[in-house]
Write a structure and sequence with these properties.
Length: about 230
Amino acid sequence: MYHDIAEVLIQEIEAGLFPEKLPTEEQLRARFQVSRDTIHKAIELITQKGLVRRIQGSGYFINHINVAEKTVVNLSLGYTTKRKKLTSKIITFDKITADASLTERYNVALNTPLTRIVRLRYLNDELYNLETAYYVDAVVPFISNEAATDSIFEFIRKAYGIYATSSDQYLAQEKLTATEAELLHKTTTEQQLTLYQTNYYGNQAYNLARTIFVYPDLNLYFHITNKMDK
C-alpha cells in the first residue's frame, strides 16, 4: 500500500504540484485514508529517492533538482514507472542460464536460470539507450510480451509484489562490441556511458542489467541517505 501512495506522490512532485513542501502527514492520512505508519513509510521511501528532505518541526521540503527534465535520469528512482515517454524495440527475449561472465559481474550463481531481455529504448523517438537485462526465474518466473515493451518493473511489482529494496550500481565508460555499435549506430572505438545494476528484493537479487546510454547531454542523479545511530 505505501509503495502505491509513494508512487502517486512521486508523480505529483515531478509534475510540480507541491512547489515547496509536501502536505503534512495528517493531511496525507486523511487524503489516502490509511494509518500514520503507512504514510510515514511512503514519505520515507520518497526521501530515500532524494525527492524531499525533512526539516525537524517544519515538514518535508521538495528538493528542487530538475529530475523531470528529459536529460536527467534519477538513478535512485529505479526506473519503476513511465517517468519519461520511453518506447522500446525488443531485440532479444529468451531464456538462458548464467555463465561465468555474468557470475563475475553480478551477484548470481553459475547456471542460474534467467530471462534475458535486450531492448533499444527511445525518448521522444530519439535513441536513448540499449538495455540488456536479466531476471532471475526463481523470483520472476514470467514476463509478458506487453511488459517487455513497456515498464517491466511495474509489471513485476503488480504481478509478484516485488520491488527493489536495494540496488548496486556501477558506472563506467566502455567501448562497444560490434553488435552494440551496430544497434546504436556508433563505432567500436567510441566509449559510452554504461550502467551496471543489480536490484535486490530483500537479500535476493532478481534483476541484473547493463544499460548503455547514448542520449545527448544526459545527466545522472542519485541520492544517498546515511542514517545515524541514536
